[in-house]
Amino acid sequence: MFNVGQKVECVKIPKGESDGAAAPRVGEKFTVIWSALVLGEPMIDLHEIPYPEVDGWYRGIPAKYFRAIVERKTSIAIFTEMLNPLKVEA
After folding, report:
1. Residue ranges of the domains in the chain?
2. pTM of the prediction?
């Protein structure tokens, strides 16, 4: 399951799951604002596309249509080090 605040990416278009909300598109990135098991299925709500209550129940969208985005800090330090001349002791 995903955590609140986690970034996710849509990997499959949900068919007939929108319940009145806009459907996400493959490749779009979102932020999770709600995550829970609903009738045994992991469900999430997205900050960018909030899902409404249906018949008084908060349903969300199935988490199976999304994957977690792993954010890595990019560093080019190893490449800039290669540009420094070698220090040779005499």
Report:
1. 7-83
2. 0.67
